[in-house]
């Protein structure tokens, strides 16, 4: 354990690996992503992390490589989590943003696909909490993470690295999902994405662009070949791509809404979202026994619509609530008053005629 401490003037400090050392550790385990390469990295002074990884491999000579890789990656995440807990100010905000980006890249790396997701998610939560300037760094972090990959599948997986358990992670999930949707639809500069109270209205405008026919037109200009013989096959592939993209976008839209603390004054925005979802997505999905991928998308649209309707019921403005007890009581009082008034009028007419009361 002594090797994990730096000693300065008689004081021991927990050693925290630098960003470059973490990059080198991932690379030594076979990271494939160019972003995790070693170009331009200087020699580091601390060798504890590298030695620990080598030791874990040497101790597990009889262990299958996949299991050994899983254990080594878990060690890295757990050690970094320990650093984040014991030395929360060891990394600057810039270092934390770089480390979060690096870990997300590692989580998407095909050669590190066995990276323990639970360990990674817990580590990312700790790193988010250690950022001093929050939410000042939120926009920078979202812009950085949205460029980690160019494919919507990877970006959706990246959003799911951040658990919906803290206020910061919820804020990041919502904002990052909205940025990714706008990026996929080429609308980054068209909407006020960074205004927190305008997120639902921005999402409502983006939903109008998620119509399958619009996505097909958008993707078709890039993928359909000019040769007629190849067009049927290319059209079928394009059909799958459109459905796949729409599925990812709709999933991200669900993340944006689920991470919001819906207030009664946002009831109208959420109601409009339900309307846009039904009008521009659900009604344009054509199911077929030969195309079950569209059925999956239809199911997702239906589930999303139901969840949003449930939110509508919970955040409905107080004036629009139907209170059966209160309304029924008022009705009974009105009826009782009306009946009493009728009796009084009959009594007055009888007395006026001089008859018995």
Automatic annotation (TrEMBL):
Family: Belongs to the FAM178 family.
Region (Disordered): 336-357
Start and end residues of each Coiled-coil SMC6 And NSE5 INteracting (CANIN) domain: 2-189
Pfam families cross-referenced by the UniProt entry: CANIN
Organism: Canis lupus dingo
Protein name listed in UniProt: Family with sequence similarity 178 member B
Top-rank lineage group of the source organism: Eukaryota
Encoding gene, per UniProt annotation: FAM178B
């Amino acid at each position: 354990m002594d090797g994990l401490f730096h000693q300065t003037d008689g004081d021991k400090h927990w050693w925290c690996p630098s960003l470059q050392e973490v990059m080198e550790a991932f690379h030594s385990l076979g990271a494939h992503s160019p972003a995790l390469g070693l170009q331009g990295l200087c020699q580091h002074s601390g060798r504890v992390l590298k030695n620990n990884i080598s030791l874990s491999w040497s101790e597990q000579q009889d262990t299958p490589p996949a299991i050994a890789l899983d254990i080594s990656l878990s060690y890295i995440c757990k050690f970094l989590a320990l650093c984040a807990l014991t030395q929360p100010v060891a990394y600057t905000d810039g270092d934390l943003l770089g480390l979060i980006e690096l870990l997300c890249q590692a989580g998407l790396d095909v050669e590190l696909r066995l990276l323990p997701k639970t360990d990674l998610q817990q580590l990312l939560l700790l790193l988010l909490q250690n950022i001093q300037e929050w939410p000042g760094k939120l926009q920078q972090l979202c812009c950085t993470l949205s460029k980690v990959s160019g494919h919507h599948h990877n970006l959706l997986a990246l959003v799911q690295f951040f658990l919906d358990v803290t206020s910061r992670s919820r804020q990041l999930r919502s904002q990052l999902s909205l940025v990714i949707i706008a990026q996929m639809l080429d609308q980054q500069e068209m909407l006020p994405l960074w205004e927190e109270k305008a997120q639902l209205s921005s999402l409502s405008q983006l939903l109008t662009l998620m119509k399958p026919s619009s996505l097909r037109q958008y993707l078709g200009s890039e993928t359909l070949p000019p040769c007629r013989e190849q067009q049927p096959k290319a059209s079928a592939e394009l059909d799958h791509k459109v459905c796949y993209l729409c599925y990812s976008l709709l999933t991200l839209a669900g993340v944006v809404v689920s991470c919001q603390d819906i207030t009664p004054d946002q009831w109208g925005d959420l109601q409009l979202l339900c309307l846009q979802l039904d009008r521009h997505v659900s009604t344009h999905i054509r199911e077929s026994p030969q195309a079950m991928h569209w059925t999956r998308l239809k199911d997702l649209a239906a589930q999303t619509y139901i969840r949003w309707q449930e939110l509508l019921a919970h955040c409905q403005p107080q004036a629009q609530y139907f209170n059966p007890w209160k309304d029924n009581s008022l009705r009974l009082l009105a009826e009782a008053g009306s009946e009493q008034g009728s009796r009084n009028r009959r009594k007055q007419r009888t007395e006026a005629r001089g008859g018995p009361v």
